[in-house]
Design goal:
By secondary structure, this protein is an all-alpha fold. Helix content is 74%, strand content 0%.
């Protein structure tokens, strides 16, 4: 009698856990609606309608938050708009889903250089080189971006040196 309540609790726990695990999809199966929205977002971006593309891609992520390609596409749009910090965050989300995504590593490295974080971009370049094993386009592109360096901010370029008091 002492063990029956414990056994019942354990059996109930096993049933609940196994039922919830059975209902989940594997990570490699992305919802088809999300993939359709991704394709629509890419078409809108290609047509030059960046706002509609952003909305559509965000909807694709709402439908299935495991859609890594939607994160990368949104990050590229953000980078094109000069929002490097947002792009870095979106690339990080994509890399959390697949740490070896070369396109996300390259894009994040370019965004890091734009923010002035060259050392972190070099770490991305090293990871890309280990993944490619040979010379690949993403590694070459990121290496060129790192060599070019971060952009000079216009505020600093327009600033005149202070006059010395006489």
């Amino acid at each position: 009698m002492r063990y029956s309540s414990v056994a019942l609790a354990v059996a109930l726990t096993i049933v609940c856990v196994s039922t919830s695990l059975h209902g989940q999809r594997p990570d490699d199966q992305i919802d088809q609606r999300s993939l359709a929205l991704l394709a629509q977002g890419r078409a809108e971006r290609a047509a030059g309608n960046v706002d509609a593309a952003t909305d559509t891609l965000e909807t694709a992520l709402a439908v299935d938050p495991r859609n890594r390609a939607a994160f990368v596409e949104l990050a590229q749009i953000s980078q094109g708009l000069g929002l490097s910090g947002k792009a870095i965050r979106l690339y990080r989300e994509a890399l959390l889903l697949e740490p070896n995504d070369v396109a996300a590593l390259e894009g994040q490295g370019e965004a890091l250089v734009a923010k002035g974080a060259v050392t972190l971009a070099q770490a991305n370049l090293a990871k890309i080189r280990t993944l490619c094993k040979t010379n690949c386009t993403p590694a070459t592109t990121l290496a060129a971006t790192i060599a070019k360096g971060p952009p000079v901010s216009t505020a600093m370029a327009d600033k005149k040196p202070a006059a010395t008091p006489e």
